[in-house]
Amino acid sequence: MSWSDILYPDNPVRRERVARLHQELINCIELNFDTTNELIEALNTHCQFKLHPVKMNMNGTVRENCDILLAAIKSIQDILQAIDAKLKSNLEPDLYRKLHDFQEPDATKMRILRNVATFVSGLAGTVAMGFFIKLALSQVVSRVLSQTTMVLAKIGASVIGAVAGMLLGVGVDLIISAILGAIERDQLEAKIQELSELVSEFKPASKEYNKAIMKILCKLP
């Protein structure tokens, strides 16, 4: 037992909590990588996209891995927005408005898209059109994607974001070793507070992102 633990007997408990929260954060990041790769595979298969799958850098920092995810999600959003821009330029304003009206039935949107599918790459085929409706024209998915990118950016910008090592315990060891000494108690409390806030926001956002995308993918043939 260190002198720090003798002087501050609650520090081992604080360290365990830091380790647990850090691992929860890493688990959420891993879930986001898996979900994004599932989405990329589906887009490449059904919409003829040429997106590259993403891979966690286990030796990199939390921030670097968040940046990898952010870049991948942005690439997906950019392509979908490019298709949407082509739709806007090829459709009558009223028809384009109907595409983005969540009260309009999917069957109506499919009929609208069939009229311009030959002019818009990525929309060839019923599956691709249905995929686009559920993914790009869904208010739920748009909100989930925006929320996910906002939380990822927040994590990357945090002090925790600078910690290297995505493997279990590696990042935690770096956190702990940087704050040993008389001020460890206060530093641990600060890290617990920061991690708690990030996890409480990121965990439900990650689950919602995964749920929204998986719900769409499960309907694909």
UniProtKB/TrEMBL annotation:
InterPro entries: DUF4533, SMCO3. It holds the Pfam family DUF4533. The keyword Transmembrane applies. The chain crosses the membrane at residues 116-137, 157-183. Keywords: Membrane, Transmembrane, Transmembrane helix. This is Single-pass membrane protein with coiled-coil domains 3. It comes from Mauremys mutica (yellowpond turtle).
